[in-house]
């Protein structure tokens, strides 16, 4: 059980988040080190992608499906968000044992599992093979890479030994290469990649543990979320992907509940839940993930946000962050990376090791007993 061991007093929170000893005591498995080194991971992934032969034949591809779960699936959502505006064919993310009926010989299926052992992804791999889809597998090893080798399916091996959710760079950038090689993109995304790499490095310097509470946006966000139920709203399609990532990172790293939604969809249902939720929402915090250019680029979206914020009023605490960067990819990564750090700081406030995922491990072990 996660308890709140600290008084909700701003000064104490700042002291805890700035205290190296607290971090080292709780972060026994080194999640902070991985998050801090994310820029290096992304650069390594881009370099590795250049050396891979994704093995995908050009030819008529009518759809792209990324199949995976959890930390391996989110890279698919990210790919869909940044590549769809330039992609001739639909990109669909699948998180299940099966695959949609449209998957066939003209579908490019990317089976992604960092461990290579996730049963849903292995089942979807089998279905994709039966449907004679074109395939590329991405994993750090495990059963998926063994099967790919035996079946002569193109496979991209990424460095292993870390949590899947801390390996997004390794899983995301090879997929960009695959799409480029498959010839489904109207333009190369390499300039977006270059901008993203620089921005991630810049953000790492601003958000790392050595930067004090007052200057560190991820620490102050963790303090705002601490002891509350976060509802994360992305106010653009790509920001909705970031909102989902924030939710799952808060779930897995900080071991607490979070909910995510995307504008404009939430304006057609969830907005009503704010009308009568005064008692329910007393300890909720709404985090709006907004685009830096929102007011100029999408004024109707900005108006939606303003109306929604007024409606929520004082029923829940509200805060917002703005994306940075110019390409869609850089803006997406800027929001995601802030959330990755914030979820780790929240883990410290919750008194838990961000890496440990006992619940997932236990569930997978139980399922492995069923044959
Ligand atoms: C753990 C994590 C999980 C896994 C999921 C699927 O860090 O993020 O959400 O990603 O259980 O496992 P893999 O990624 O190995 O297929």
Can you walk me through this structure?
By secondary structure, this protein is an alpha/beta fold. It folds into two domains: 11-29 and 194-350, Glucose-6-phosphate isomerase like protein, domain 1 (Rossmann fold); 38-188, 3-Layer(aba) Sandwich (Rossmann fold). It has helices at 10-18, 20-26, 31-36, 38-51, 70-83, 119-130, 142-151, 168-182, 190-207, 217-225, 237-254, 270-273, 294-297, 299-312, 328-350, 358-369, and strands at 63-67, 91-94, 107-112, 134-139, 155-157, 229-234, 259-262, 284-290, 317-322. The strands form two sheets. The protein has a five-stranded parallel β-sheet, with helices on both faces. Strand 6, helix 11 and strand 7 form a beta-alpha-beta unit. Helix 10 (217-225) packs across helix 15. The longest helix is centred in the last third of the chain and has 23 residues, at 328-350. It binds fructose -6-phosphate. Fructose -6-phosphate is lined by residues 68-72, 113-115, 118, 121, 163-165, 252, 357, 360.
């Amino acid at each position: 059980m996660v308890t709140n061991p600290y008084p909700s007093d701003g000064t104490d929170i700042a002291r805890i988040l700035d205290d190296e000893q607290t971090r080292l005591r709780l972060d026994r498995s080194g999640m902070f080190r991985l998050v801090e080194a994310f820029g290096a991971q992304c650069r390594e992934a881009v370099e590795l992608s250049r050396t891979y032969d994704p093995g995908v034949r050009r030819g008529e591809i009518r759809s792209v499906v990324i199949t995976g779960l959890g930390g391996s699936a989110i890279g698919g959502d990210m790919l869909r968000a940044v590549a769809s505006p330039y992609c001739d064919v639909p990109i669909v993310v699948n998180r299940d044992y099966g695959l949609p009926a449209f998957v066939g010989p003209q579908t490019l299926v990317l089976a992604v599992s960092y461990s290579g052992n996730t049963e849903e992804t292995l089942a979807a791999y089998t279905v994709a093979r039966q449907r004679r889809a074109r395939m590329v597998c991405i994993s750090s090893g495990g059963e998926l890479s063994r099967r790919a080798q035996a079946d002569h399916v193109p496979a991209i091996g990424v460095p292993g030994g870390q949590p899947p959710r801390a390996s997004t760079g390794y899983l995301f950038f090879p997929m960009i290469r695959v799409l480029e090689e498959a010839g489904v993109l109207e333009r190369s995304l390499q300039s977006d990649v270059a901008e993203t790499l620089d921005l991630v490095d810049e953000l790492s310097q601003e958000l790392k543990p050595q930067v004090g509470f007052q200057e560190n946006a991820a620490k102050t966000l963790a303090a705002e979320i601490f002891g509350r139920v976060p509802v994360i709203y992305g106010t653009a399609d790509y920001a909705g992907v970031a909102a989902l990532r924030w939710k799952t990172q808060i779930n897995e790293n900080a071991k607490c509940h979070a909910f995510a939604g995307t504008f404009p969809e939430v304006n057609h249902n969830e907005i009503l839940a704010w009308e009568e939720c005064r008692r329910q929402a007393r300890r909720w915090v709404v985090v709006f993930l907004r685009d830096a250019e929102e007011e100029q680029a999408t004024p109707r979206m900005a108006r939606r946000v303003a109306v929604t914020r007024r409606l929520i009023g004082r029923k829940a605490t509200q805060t917002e962050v703005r994306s940075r960067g110019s390409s869609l990819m850089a803006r997406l990564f800027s929001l995601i990376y802030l959330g990755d750090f914030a979820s780790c700081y929240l883990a410290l406030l919750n008194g838990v090791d961000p890496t440990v995922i006992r619940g997932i491990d236990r569930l997978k072990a139980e399922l492995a007993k069923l044959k």
